[in-house]
Amino acid sequence: MLELFPDTARIDVGELSLGGMRASGLAGQFGTPLYVYCEATLRGRAREIRAAVPDALVFYGSKAFPNVAVLRLMADEGIGADVSTLGELALARAAGIEGEQLVVHGNAKADEELRAAAESGATVVLDGDEAERAATAGVRRVLVRVTLGVEADTHEAIRTGHHGSKFGLPPDHALRTVEAALALDLEVAGLHIHVGSQLADTSGHLETIDLLARFAVRCRAELGWTPELVNVGGGFGIRHVLEEREAPLGELAAEVAEAVARSWGEHGLAAPRLMLEPGRALVGQAGVTLYRVLNVKRLDGVTWVAVDGGISDNPRPELYGARYTALSASRADQPATETVSIAGLHCESGDVLIDDVSLPPPRPGDLLAVPATGAYTLAMSSNYNATPRPAAVLVAGGEARVVRRRETLDDLLALEVW
Ligand SMILES: Cc1ncc(COP(=O)(O)O)c(C=O)c1O
User: Fold this and answer.
1) Into how many domains does the chain fold?
2) Alpha-carbon distances of 318 from 218, 241, 381, rounded to whole Å
3) Ligand 1 pocket residue status of 396, Cβ below 6 Å
């Protein structure tokens, strides 16, 4: 199962190591739960997509893990940032990302957010009748987000390009928005689509790209305007469990780039510049969560292994039925002879991280490693049950550095007023 882990994962003398750091050392030094990110894997995925689509502009979908150190690392690899809140914008700017390296999204943007976007020189993706507010805020360059009615093959909560989605504008409305933005003298640089997330193939992208080319033809005919940029969003999936299909980022991105060039050519349009916004595919596999086993209960029919985290640091299993697997990090070479369920510590029966996984007979104190947890975990974490959020560390070459410190009880108390 090491293929689900970061590229530097090894089993050394029975123990998992990441970036040259032993799991027990990381847990001892930084505590658990701990989010461990592998720098080599982050850089590896960034280079993979840049090499596959060298002419495209790539933006990290920072909602997957909005973190200044990771944003800086991406910027270092020539990757900008896609942000969708004032907070994500602040983190990206703290990482030194500004101007054309920034794309600002949101289906509900406050004036304050539009002003901050304008100040940063970002490209703003219009998603509603907000052209005038954007222009008043000082925004110069915009894209228009279009929804073309494609049902991507993924969980409904992360499907975004279908009819009835809260995101984007159906063609007639999008056309009116392009027209309104042009009338306001905004630089309408192009169009945006995002089909959905955790897609194992590009069928949803390809269907949408063809419809988008048809929409571009309509824009040319009715408005005399053609998009110079086409932002195809993110959505490239990763493998969380061995049964899931592999989705090699470089191949998927190249297929999308070819599809844009082909569809635009077939419709007699000049090839636009491609923009991509992968989130999960850049950071998902780079991240591993380390949990400490607190309790083992062997009940009729199920062995419950309760760990020191749960839905507060990873709500995806409860939200989407997301599947994960786990490895006994401290006894990685022992035969996995017992089938167990991994429970979180929270007061919810649904707080089950993994339904069914085989481990060496578990005991309290064991260290468990859950791979492919770099995306939409800490990013979606909460303080449920007044639980401080875990730390995140970046590992490389036998060293680890904290990139997000662990919250403390004092942090929680600091928000209380009495
Ligand atoms: C507009 C937009 N771009 C990019 C992304 C990143 O998606 P993913 O993490 O699936 O690549 C999302 C995710 O929801 C999004 O809404």
Assistant:
1) 2
2) 42, 16, 12
3) no
**Shared-domain flag, residues 322 and 221:** no
* Closest of 85, 66, 10, 115 to residue 376, by C-alpha: 66
Report pLDDT digits (tens) over 333-387. Answer: 999 999 999 999 999 999 999 999 999 999 999 999 999 999 999 999 999 999 9
Per-residue pLDDT reduced to its tens digit, 1-14: 899 999 999 999 99
279 with 198, same domain?
yes
Nearest CA to ligand 1 atom 14: 197
Q: What is the pLDDT of residues 289-317, one digit of tens each?
A: 999 999 999 998 899 999 999 999 999 99
| Domain boundaries, position 6 | 2-31+286-414
The number of the ligand 1 atom at minimal distance from the alpha carbon of 236 is 11
Find out whether the beta carbon of 239 lies less than 6 Å from any atom of ligand 1. Answer: no
Active-site residues, by number, are 347
Map residue 49 onto helix, strand or coil: helix
Atom of ligand 1 at shortest range from CA of 197: 10
Shared domain check, 114 and 139: yes
Domain of residue 349, CATH code: 2.40.37.10
Residue 168 near ligand 1, beta carbon < 6 Å? no
Q: What count of Cα atoms within 13 Å lies in the side-chain half-sphere of residue 304?
A: 13
Q: What is the pLDDT of residue 91?
A: 98
Mark whether 166 and 268 lie in a shared domain.
yes
User: Cα separation of 82 and 329, whole Å?
Assistant: 34
179 lies in the same domain as 127: yes
User: Ligand 1 in contact with 234 (CB < 6 A)?
Assistant: yes
Do 256 and 364 reside in the same domain of the chain?
Answer: no
Q: Is 400 helix (H, G, I), strand (E, B) or coil?
A: strand
Give me the chain's average pLDDT, please.
96
